[in-house]
Amino acid sequence: MPLLFRRLAPIALFSLLAALGFACTADLEEGCLGGQCVPPGSPPIPPLPTSGAGGGGGGDAGPTCDDTPATGDFPCDVFAVLQTHCHGCHQSPPLSGAPYSLLTYEDTRELHGVTTKPRFVRMAEVVESGFMPLMATIPEADKQLLLDWLSTCGLPAPDGMGCE
After folding, report:
1. Are strands 162-163 and 74-75 parallel, antiparallel or unpaired?
2. In which residue ranges is the amino acid composition biased (Gly residues) (predicted)?
């Protein structure tokens, strides 16, 4: 019997792993089996738009964000909002399922997961939809300040006037 078990165990293990692989339909950006993770009572995760990879539109829709600086500091008022409402999870290393850190201006310039859009574009989508901050309410003034900054491509503060 032990010999039979040793021969069948690898086959059974392989079959189990193959079955689990096919059952995984998660959006890997969110990291949950069976679909997107959303705590009870949270708004749904806004879908990723299928067009506009640069993060600011283009053509007659307004300026693109392709030429924004890759380095710099947050404007101090924006940093205060991020620190109060975002950095509890979006720290280094991230906590509570946050996908990445947002502690530095440079963090907002990295690409969002496997997409071609920078994180600051995704930040605008999830803040505007009310999905973020997760399980919390951001005061309207703070939300608007953050959205206004993000709508201008999240430009850095002038040299010597930023916060981090």
Report:
1. antiparallel
2. 52-61
